[in-house]
Amino acid sequence: MDRKKLVELAYQRGKELNLKNKNYLNWLTNFFEQEYREDVGSGDVTSEAILTRDRNARAVLIAKQSGIIGGIEETSWLYKKHGLKVKIYSQDASEIKKGNTIFEASGRQKDILATERICLNVLQRMSGIATETRYLVDLLRGYKTRIAAIRKTLWRYLDKKAVFLGGGLTHRLGLWDSILIKDNHLEALKNEGIKNNVEKAIDMASQFVDKVGFIEIETTNQDDALRAARKFRQLKLKKPCITMLDNAEPKEIEQIMEKLRNENLYDSVLLEASGNITRENIREYAKTGIDVVSLGYLTHSAKILDMSLEMTT
Read out DSSP for 117-164? Predict the structure, then answer.
């Protein structure tokens, strides 16, 4: 089993998140339409009051911090949809320095101002997520462990794409994507009187193997992790099989991996660590050799990358 290829196959959906993908384009169109409708409403009353003549103007987007840029494809599309021309100086996933001009937008002043905040929100958030992801990816250079997001997102596909632009893995894009058996699923089976709930859950999930990208189960102790691996080995499914070690400390992860190897189970599963992983302790997890670490804070607590859109003559 080529673990590196399996990780990419199971966890990476970033290449699907572009405007050539009709599903992504439809979602993005709805997203921007709602943002524009809620922000502009019946009209930008400030511009209507102040700009008595709607002249042509030019605005430049300036980076106020260094980092990784994200959201160029999406915001350029929005500007063009509103009749504005865009000249791009920095591509998505590229490194920008404080003071760099990222792009220029030109057209009617009112159109620039009506779309300014929506575009800045998207660019700043996506760039912040991409920058933090790239920082973590750089921290783990030399280790085989990959970084993944989870479903704790504010702006779903935009957040997931930002992680991808930073060099991380998107994980599943939604509940429809792949199977992730969590503690509440296992507890529900237990409440039905099913004793071997780990094995039973994997058995039931295996019936959907042709419809999903992977099958994963969340475990909270060594026994369940081993039980899951044994079941995955028995079934020999043709999709990636993943065991999540939830809230496991690095030492416990090493113990589980040793037991998996002793039972010849290691090659039957990919291993993901999740829970309480931060930029301060992430290397300790990588030292265990685990395949993937997933971090919620990447997308639910992202800090923006500061930038500003400035009108010029």
Answer: HHHHHHHHHHHHHHHHHHHHHHHTTTS--EEE--S--SSHHHHHHHHH
